Amino acid sequence: xxxxxxxxxxxxxxxxxxxxxxxxxxxxxxxxxxxxxxxxxxxxxxxxxxxxxxxxxxxxxxxxxxxxxxxxxxxxxxxxxxxxxxxxxxxxxxxxxxxxxxxxxxxxxxxxxxxxxxxxxxxxxxxxxxxxxxxxxxxxxxxxxxxxxxxxxxxxxxxxxxxxxxxxxxxxxxxxxxxxxxxxxxxxxxxxxxxxxxxxxxxxxxxxxxxxxxxxxx
Length: 218
Hints:
By secondary structure, the chain is α/β, with parallel strands linked by helices. 51% of the residues lie in helices and 13% in strands. The chain has a six-stranded parallel beta sheet with strand order 2-1-3-4-5-6, with helices on both faces.
């Protein structure tokens, strides 16, 4: 009996590479694919996979909110995050949402395959990079600002940092603009900032905006 996998990643070429890698192993097969959170949710309901492999950064709602949504539908769902994000905060938010494993895309290919098997058999799966990041985070006295946020608030924060408008965020989450504005206010309140500029600089300082270079950085 094969482990049936659903792949959710917004890059078709990347999904094809994952499929070929996974299906080299006789005990695993990819039964469906999706390119965003909305279609990933529908694919989960249609395919009923054994393991869902989810990227975090996708158009619209991200992978962490998809994890939360799938777990609301099926509390027994087994979900593995496979992402470029190597920070402890991302991993902690993913596990808070209900993921059972987290592997970075810079990990050796066999780590992903091993993680799929581990998650399928009910074990927690972490790549070495994330293990190290979490250990370092726990040893540090500095608490990440995002630890105060729920998975949904974290995903909305990510979209704010990605310069998405209130209307774009509302559409992605099927919320009213007023509800999004309330989330936005609550996020700033929890993080102790008064403006979006302060919010961005706080997140840069805590490594939540890897694509932005702080002034003076080389």
